[in-house]
Amino acid sequence: MRMNQYLPVGHPLNKIYRIGTGLIGAGLIVFGLLGFINRLTFFSTEGDRILGLSSNGLLSLISVLVGAILIGSAVIGGVVASTTAVVLGVAFLLSGLVNLALLETRFNLLAFEMRNVVFSLVVGMLLLFLGLYGRLSGGLSEDNPFVRARHHEDPHADHRAEETAERRRLAEIRPLADAENAVAQGIATPEQERLVAEDARERSEAARREAYRRYEEEHAADAVPAQEQRRQQSSRRGSHGRHRRWPTIRT
């Protein structure tokens, strides 16, 4: 199945991806258009101030293009928006690091200043966090669309019954866990001590029954070969009796 089947339009993750990429894309487009309105020199390494950042014509063009890509991915939504955010987030981080090395050189074609470097790194981290949100974590729930996709599960499967049963099981064992912790710390109440003692007694009984069961199984398994051996010995004795020859008596 395609990943889009696991991430329906109304899913909260889809809304987060769309809103996040749309807002960042719109901000970049506004920044780029203001550069065009101010008729910035295209390849100037000095740059002019736009919204507190240094910019030139080339940076304005790149900002508009990247913003358009982000808004286009927001319109599509789903995994497209998430993946686009991750890719562009990495690009912004690399841009910030590369342009940091090019500051105050003739190769500073985007007219970057330290403010631009910081802005590029911050936007890159925001895009990475946005794109990976709900996709990369050790604590994703079983009904997460990306978890379902990895396990090739039905995207429309309802796991509420299993989740309710799991919550009920955790609620049942929570008092015992608290009681064991209190006993270990020496601050248990009489009720908690009784609960731990009953649990220990039940575990002991269960272990004893399991030991008896295994003993009976092993004893039964050993008894079968012994019975088979006795049967074979009895069969051999009968066979020797049938074929025994009596000596001939001559007169």
From TrEMBL:
Transmembrane region(s): 16-37, 58-80, 86-105, 117-136
Compositionally biased tracts (Basic and acidic residues): 191-221
Keyword DNA repair listed: no
Entry keyword Membrane: yes
Pfam family, one: DUF4383
Keyword terms, alphabetized: Membrane, Transmembrane, Transmembrane helix
Superkingdom of this protein's organism: Bacteria
Basic residues: compositionally biased ranges: 233-251
Region annotation Disordered: where it falls in the sequence: 181-251
Record protein name field: Uncharacterized protein
